[in-house]
Amino acid sequence: MLYWPNDVPGKLDENASHYVSLIKDILRAYKGDFGKPGIIVAPYDCELLGHWWFEGNWWLARVFRWIEDDPEIDLTNTRIYLDQNPPNKVVSIIEGSWGQGSSHWVWLNEWTTWTWKVIYNCEAKSELIISKYKDSQDPNLIKILKQMARELLLLESSDWQFLITTWSARDYAENRVAVHYENFNRLYDMADKYANGEYIEEGEWHFLGTLERTDGLFEALDLEPFAKK
Helix, strand or coil for residue 219? Predict the structure, then answer.
């Protein structure tokens, strides 16, 4: 099968038009049956758009624009809808997941228990040290704490347990857990020493700078949510 980039815009228009038409048909049918406007809740796994489906983001942009311009459909969210339509019933939903057997086994089993132990250990340490120093006026200390928090977020990624359990990239996932765990603890020790006036070797500052380049996600990261409540 060949990929023809020039055909993409037309196909996106076709797909988006079809999707919007489906929405309108469903809402019309609901109003016809029940005599009142309905709501469609359409949650999707975000990695579908742009990862598994490269053009997914462009498709979504078209869908939003066309719905916004359509007089028969209003874009909303669950908070706004519930404010305008207070619920009068309570529904009990069974706990589950999209994993095997609709349970949490994929992420918590005999192969992954060790990952949660290191994650919980880092979370506890992070809460204490960030609570203590998050309001510091020392930019260097804040830099260390923010990169430490980034390493914690990377350590907490649920992809690692999934990859370990499915054996699709077990060695890679186990290594990533180990690397981010090591990075976190090294930064934790660095922050603790620096905050207490101890000398930080040049190599540690170089280490911090390297991580800021390689693991520099969430540039505007806020430390407050990481503090102990």
Answer: coil
pLDDT tens across 172-204, in order? Answer: 999 999 999 999 999 999 999 999 999 999 999
pLDDT in tens, 13-34: 999 999 999 999 999 999 999 9
Q: Are residues 196 and 133 in contact, defined by beta-carbon separation less than 8 angstroms?
A: no
When mean pLDDT is compared across 86-100, 118-132, 185-199, 207-221, the lowest value belongs to 86-100
Question: Using CA atoms, how far apart are residues 217 and 221, in angstroms rounded to an integer?
Answer: 8
Domains of the chain: 5-84 (no CATH), 100-226 (1.20.1430.10)
Six token digits for residue 188 = 């934790």
CB-based contacts of 123-126 (< 8 A; 24+ apart in sequence): 123/152, 123/156, 125/188, 126/152, 126/184, 126/188, 126/226
Assess contact for 132 and 140: CB atoms under 8 A. no
- HEC string of 108-154 equals CCCCCHHHHHHHHHHHHHHHHHHHHHCCCCCHHHHHHHHHHHHHHHH
- Rounded Cα distance between 19 and 16, Å, is 5
Ordered DSSP codes for 36-72: S---------GGGBTTTBTTHHHHHHHHHHHHHH-TT
